[in-house]
Design goal:
Elements: E1 12-17, E2 23-30, E3 35-40, E4 61-66, H1 85-98, E5 104-109, H2 111-122, E6 127-133, H3 140-147, H4 157-164, H5 175-183, H6 188-204, H7 212-218, H8 221-236, H9 246-249, E7 259-264, H10 272-281, E8 286-290, H11 300-312
Parallel strand pairs: 3-4, 3-5, 5-6, 6-7, 7-8
Antiparallel strand pairs: 1-2, 2-4
Helix pairs in contact: 1-2, 4-6, 5-8, 6-7, 6-8
């Protein structure tokens, strides 16, 4: 059994201007001259949490954890202008170059898995290996499952009812359009109410067993607004993918990159079928389905599998 590493404080924090509008905030922890690794948070818009540093051996890895555009402590907060998948991918490459890193291991979950795959496809020469969790391929079927009636709503009808309560409709294909109007309203109270309902939906279905503390954290203040605005913006734009099946269609471009997939059997946000499809498209990939895992990376089985992945990738140094 592989345990999470003890909490560790970052040894450096800094910012990087990636455009005239956006500045990203990032932290570094672990060994300053160690094996470089990049951690990509989910959402989009969720930001970095301290526990993410615990997936990596601080005596081996130099871990870089950026808040993506509009997320966490990056500025401007919750900004939708100049905020797309391609632009965030380019930010990661700018950060790698800025830090004088030749190649790095990349770990990401949920939207972080989408971003990790997109980054690897565009800049394969920058990647030592990929560890992804809760695979999201940004296909229409996955968005329909999460944001329209008939998918995850069938498993969590109570949470779904709360999710669509600000919309005055039953969760048809107008869900994202209606939410976007609320989240970009001129009235702060309207934006915040919608953001809290949006964030509560995902927080309520993230773990195998109810976690009220997680729901409270994700629905509080500016955190909820960042997540909801940016997620809705990306979802409404189909996550800015060139085609509906872009990641699988281009998976052949990264067939030489070591890939570890960690997937919860009971992940309701990102169902196991997406991880399975990716595994089948990349024959060399190493798929670990966690029997009692859901979406949260902090569930015991999920966390252990992610640490095992970073342990196995030490040999890439």
């Amino acid at each position: 059994m592989t345990q999470l590493y003890p909490p560790v404080e970052p040894y450096a924090t800094d910012t990087l201007s990636v455009s005239p509008l956006h500045t990203i905030f990032y932290k570094q922890s672990g060994k300053s001259d160690g094996l470089p690794a990049l951690f990509l948070h989910g959402g989009p818009g969720a930001g970095i949490l301290p526990d993410y540093r615990r997936f990596f051996d601080p005596n081996i890895y130099r871990l870089i954890l950026p808040d993506q555009r509009g997320a966490g402590r990056s500025t401007p907060a919750a900004e939708l202008k100049e905020n797309s998948t391609c632009e965030i991918v380019d930010d990661l490459e700018k950060l790698r170059s800025h830090l004088a890193i030749e190649k790095w291991v990349v770990m990401g979950g949920s939207w972080g898995s989408t971003l990790a795959l997109s980054y690897a496809i565009r800049y394969p020469e920058s990647i030592l290996g990929l560890i992804i969790r809760g695979v999201f391929l940004a296909r229409s079927e996955e968005m329909d499952w999460l944001y329209h009636a008939g998918g995850a709503s069938q498993i969590y009808p109570d949470a779904w009812e709360r999710f669509i309560s600000p919309l005055n409709h039953n969760g048809n294909r107008e869900t994202l359009v209606l939410y976007y109007k609320l989240l970009t309203s001129d009235k702060p109270s309207v934006r915040m109410e919608a953001a809290q309902c949006w964030a509560a939906w995902e927080a309520s279905i993230m773990t195998l067993l109810p976690n009220l503390e997680s729901v409270k954290e994700m629905t509080s203040g500016e955190s909820a607004l960042n997540i909801a605005r940016i997620e809705c913006h990306f979802a409404l734009n189909k996550f800015f993918m060139p085609t509906d099946n872009y990641l699988l269609e281009n998976a052949y471009l990264i067939n030489d990159i070591p890939l570890r997939i960690v997937q919860g059997r009971y992940d309701v946000i990102c169902p196991v079928s997406s991880a399975w499809d990716l595994h089948k498209a990349m024959s060399h990939s190493d798929l670990h389905i966690i029997p009692d895992g859901a979406h949260s990376p902090m569930d015991t089985g999920m966390a252990e599998a992610l640490v095992e992945g970073s342990e196995d990738f030490k040999n890439l140094y």
